Amino acid sequence: MEAKEKLLWSIALPGFGQILNGKLIKGILIIFLEILINVQANFNEVIILSFHGKIVSAIEQTNYQWLMFYPCLYFFAIWDAFKDAGGGKDGYSFLPFVFSAYFVTVGAIYSSTLTIFGVLWGPVWLPMLFVLPGVVIGLIVQVGCRWIL
């Protein structure tokens, strides 16, 4: 299985990519942490409410103290599975993942109050919208670091 396929498994559930790479203890630990954070943040209920368009209810159900751990664990698991599978050998290849985790965390922080085009996006959709600028800025910084350093 190629590095990109293992990356996709980590996108589906953090920890699967590590297990596919033969890193069983790391994979099981990441899956345990994902489940712990998911349950403590009440994230599955928040996702369901968000998909039904009940953004205010989703905000009320969210435990933000726990939800803020999720982006870092999620993007770390993706990057780690990709790296362990042989990807990311270029310099500073971790930067798009780091910036994505940062931007998604900021999106989670402001998801209860920030509106875009008059829409309150909530704790699922706003962080997802923040992935794109995180990836783009991470790629720009990555290219800049390779060029300068």
In terms of topology, how is this protein built?
Blueprint: H1 3-12, H2 16-20, H3 24-41, H4 43-51, H5 55-61, H6 64-67, H7 70-84, H8 95-110, E1 115-116, E2 119-120, H9 122-129, H10 131-148
Antiparallel strand pairs: 1-2
Largest sheet: 2 strands, antiparallel
Strand content: under 5%
Q: Can you list the strand order of the major beta sheet?
A: 1-2
H/E element sequence:
HHHHHHHHEEHH
Distance between the termini: 33 Å
- Helix count, per DSSP? 10
- Note the quaternary state here: single chain
Class of secondary structure makeup? mainly alpha
Q: What Rg, in angstroms, do the CA atoms define?
A: 16 Å
Number of strands: 2
Helix content: over 70%
Low-confidence segments: none
Keywords: Membrane, Plasmid, Transmembrane, Transmembrane helix
Transmembrane segments: 24-43, 63-82, 94-118, 124-145
